[in-house]
Amino acid sequence: MKFRALILVVILVGGFWFLTSHYSPLVDGHSVGHLFGPNSAGSSMQLTEAEAAPAYDAEEQNNIAVYKRVLPSVVNITSTALVYNFFFQAVPQQGQGSGFILDKNGHILTNFHVIEGANRGISVQLSNKRRYPAKVVGSDKIHDLALLQIDAPDLQPVTLADSSGLNVGQKVYAIGNPFGLNGTMTRGIISSIRSIHNQDGAPIEDAIQTDAAINPGNSGGPLLNSHGEVIGINTLIASNGAEQSSGIGFAIPINTAKAVLSDLARYGQVKRPSLGVSTFAIGPDLAEQMGLPADYGLLIQKVIPGGAAERAGLRGGREQAYVGNTAILLGGDLIVAINGQQVADQQDVSIIMDKLHAGDVVSVTIVRDRRQMTFKLQLSEAHDANV
């Protein structure tokens, strides 16, 4: 009898376990799962899952295609400098930025400020996580550009676009290493194209303003069009002291870089062209006060000995005068145009010079003794702040 009772208990317990763990009743034609579960407390749960991943739309497909195409060309740059702490102890300090591969010979373009002061070496990490030491081939602080080179196999260069025909509203992408987060892509549009000054006060003509998120570590990385071609080098953010993206970032146009790359590769520096003069910008009010024959232009203060202007016969000032507390020289030639383009200040000259090289011949239109004259100048190489 005891044995029969034991068998009955086992059957009842087994049946109860089977029903509670396997039976799924239908409510309104739908399965509601197990009657009881370890965390159900008498309730039921039903998850709805997709049968397959949805197809990407056209915009998503382009985003993915641009990222996959360009990522192998973007590098992370680490520069190391030896600095002294409060106790005058020498300690290494590292900075990070981005860059991009120009050719299979390992040339890499980045910002000058990314590698500035790197007295203990520069290393480059590729997208495959391999790291290589880099040497500085050349740098141009004025344009905030630096050319590096590494010795690495199977490099994938970027494609450079023409940045002269850009339009506000055009879609752009930025790929870099913001805050050290390798391989980050952000996107936005061209918000404006304007002339600005970099952190050292040097002008950046036709800088590309974008709302694509650019943060510390993005410097030196590429700004791309929707085809994945490089249109600019990310260089600056307007952060109001926050040191992070405010939706206003700036990139150096790639055409500016093209103009200096050959000099960097050949000479290690940019042989900036120069007229060989120091000048003072004149506006309508000053022109009227000084009795000048034109109400705009650059009044030549000094002609640099041996420079392009002296060789062509241009003249500097002779009579001292003051504009406020600033001493200037009157009586020199007034430059009003270069290659037919009017120039009203040094920024106008910089825009023209960025497209020229030392040794090029330009026509310079001046006003002398109320007569307009044009001279041919073979540009010399700039060695200081002269125009």
Defining traits:
387 residues, alpha+beta, Thrombin, subunit H, Pdz3 Domain, 3 domains, six-stranded antiparallel beta barrel, 7 helices, 24 strands, 37% strand
Description:
The chain has 387 residues and is of the alpha+beta class. It folds into three domains: 69-149, Trypsin-like serine proteases (Thrombin, subunit H); 163-267, Trypsin-like serine proteases (Thrombin, subunit H, Beta Barrel); 273-381, PDZ domain (Pdz3 Domain, Roll), CATH 2.30.42. Helices cover 19% and strands 37% of the residues. The protein is built from seven helices and 24 strands. The strands form six sheets. Strands 3-4-5-8-7-6 form a six-stranded antiparallel barrel. Strand 18 and strand 19 form a beta hairpin. The radius of gyration is 33 Å and the shape is elongated.
How are the strands ordered across the major sheet?
Answer: 3-4-5-8-7-6
Count of individual helical segments: 7
- How many domains? The number is 3
CATH class of the largest domain: Mainly Beta
Helix content: 10-25%
Structural category: alpha+beta
CATH superfamily heading of the largest domain: PDZ domain
CATH architecture of the largest domain: Roll
CATH topology of the largest domain: Pdz3 Domain
Number of strands: 24
Strand content: 35-45%
The largest β sheet comes out as:
6 strands, antiparallel, barrel
Over the alpha carbons, how many angstroms does the gyration radius reach?
A: 33 Å
Low-confidence stretches: 26-37
Shape category: elongated
- The average pLDDT score comes to 84
Span of the ends, CA to CA: 116 Å
